[in-house]
Write a structure and sequence with these properties.
By secondary structure, the chain is α/β, with parallel strands linked by helices. Helices cover 39% and strands 21% of the residues. The longest helix is centred in the C-terminal third of the chain and has 25 residues. 43% of the residues are buried.
């Protein structure tokens, strides 16, 4: 008899990704859709249900469990999406109820995407993380999760939203070092940068270009990521002090810059944390890469 397969759905601001996942973490029948096409229908959740139903009908074996990750906050009972910034129509919407009603033959599990991705690392990483760790995603926003004894800590539903703690410049952390925050910081620093750089002052900045050029040795790009690391480090000081956690995984689309972010982060951590913390602290990149969201959503079912 075939091992149970589940459907993982990663809802993102740009794409909705789906794939069937087996217990070993292999992805089958992967497909990706533009989120804007779902929004254009006028009812995102109905379109999501229809697409899921089509995938279920076309798959080679019965599937009874679906895990879905959303880029925002959900009610503790997972019946409501409270605030999904990239999908305003899901504000305080009974999304979970709607999905379960539209997919009555399946068990449907919902979670914040970063928290799901943390569980994905726990279930599917080739070298699993410890049973207790913090997980930070660097990307469009700053996602985070705390896994304690192999369980996500949710508090009253949305614990550990590190991206929304108060940071520099009177804004929250993800406004400073989310993708747009990094571009804003780079634009400001470029105005006073006197050394050579391949980054153009005439063309729009690109986070991808900055990662590539930092990797090529561009001093300006590396200096920006160093400062990003310092800002992240200020948030991690609070996180480590509050949770007393000594294992931190860094994931997300901009984790490719971690090599250049890390020195700034360590500079701040060394300045503010005593050896009691630093001697035990281990920070490393997450391992699931572009599959983290989908495998994380699927992990909710196992």
């Amino acid at each position: 008899m075939n091992a149970e397969h589940v459907l993982g759905v990663d809802v993102g601001g740009n794409h909705v990704k789906m794939g069937f996942v087996d217990p070993e973490g292999n992805i089958h029948n992967f497909n990706s859709h533009y989120t804007k096409d779902f929004v254009a229908t006028g009812d995102f959740t109905d379109k999501l249900i229809q697409t899921i139903q089509f995938n279920l009908l076309s798959y080679s074996q019965p599937v009874t469990k679906i895990g879905i990750g959303f880029p925002g906050t959900l009610s503790k009972d997972r019946n409501y999406t409270l605030n999904i910034p990239s999908l305003p129509e899901l504000l305080n919407a009974p999304t979970g109820q709607h999905l379960r009603a539209g997919l009555p033959e399946c068990m449907v599990f919902l979670a914040n995407d970063a928290k799901a991705a943390a569980m994905g690392e726990l279930h599917f990483a080739a070298t699993p993380p410890p049973d207790t760790f913090a997980f930070i995603t660097l990307g469009t926003g700053i996602g985070s999760a705390y896994v304690q004894n192999r369980q996500i800590f949710v508090g009253e539903g949305n614990a550990l939203e590190l991206g929304h703690i108060v940071s520099r410049n009177g804004v929250v952390l993800e406004k400073n070092i989310g993708k747009q925050g990094i571009l804003n910081l780079a634009a400001v620093r470029l105005g006073t940068w006197a050394e050579p750089t391949v980054i153009s002052r005439e063309k729009p900045l690109s986070a991808t270009e900055m990662v590539v050029e930092a990797n090529n040795g561009d001093a300006f790009c590396r200096s920006v990521f160093y400062e990003v690391g310092q800002i992240l480090g200020e948030g991690l000081v609070a996180l480590i002090r509050i949770l007393d956690v000594n294992n931190i995984l860094i994931g997300g689309g901009l984790s490719a810059s971690w090599e250049f972010v890390r020195p700034g982060t360590e500079n701040v951590l060394n300045a503010w944390l005593p050896p009691y913390y630093m001697d035990k602290l281990h920070m490393s990149k997450a391992t699931l890469g572009n599959d983290a969201g989908l495998l994380g959503a699927a992990s909710l079912c196992f």
